[in-house]
Amino acid sequence: MNVALTKCFYCGKDNDILLAIRYNRKGEPSTDMSKFHGKADPRRPCNECKEAMRKGVMLCEVRDGEKGDNPYRTGKLWVVSAEACKRIFKDIDFDGVRFIFIEERYAKRVGLHDPENNVSETGE
């Protein structure tokens, strides 16, 4: 396979198209790109996520009790200002952090599931 479509690690949407650039004398790609197909690279957010992280901190909801670098996600994402995150989560330095996982119970506890809390005054 000489083409692969990667996923955004942060939102899960399609991200980059990777093309093999080296071929052998038979015209076959020297690197099998299929190992990259459908995979996500946490170093390369999609353009939407880059913009969201520029505006604030992305909170990605995961199932309660999930641990590790890539826990099971519920599909819910929110972008919250760094200032609000500093007030809500006291133990995290949000000056350099732009993405965190949050368990469902904590997302509910801080009001992220309340629709009235999910739109800023500017409508973003």
List the helices and strands and how they pair.
Elements: E1 3-8, E2 14-19, E3 40-41, H1 47-55, E4 57-62, E5 73-80, H2 82-88, E6 99-103, H3 104-109
Task: Explain briefly what this protein structure is.
The protein has 124 residues and is α/β, with parallel strands linked by helices. The protein contains three helices and six strands.
List the defining traits of the structure above:
6 strands; three-stranded mixed β-sheet; alpha/beta; 3 helices; single chain; 124 residues
Question: What does this molecule look like?
Answer:
The chain is of the alpha/beta class and 124 residues long. It has helices at 47-55, 82-88, 104-109; strands at 3-8, 14-19, 40-41, 57-62, 73-80, 99-103. The chain has a 3-stranded mixed β-sheet, with no helix packed on it. Strands 5-4-6 form a 3-stranded mixed β-sheet. A hairpin with a 5-residue loop joins β1 and β2. The longest helix is centred in the middle third of the chain and has 9 residues, at 47-55. It is elongated.
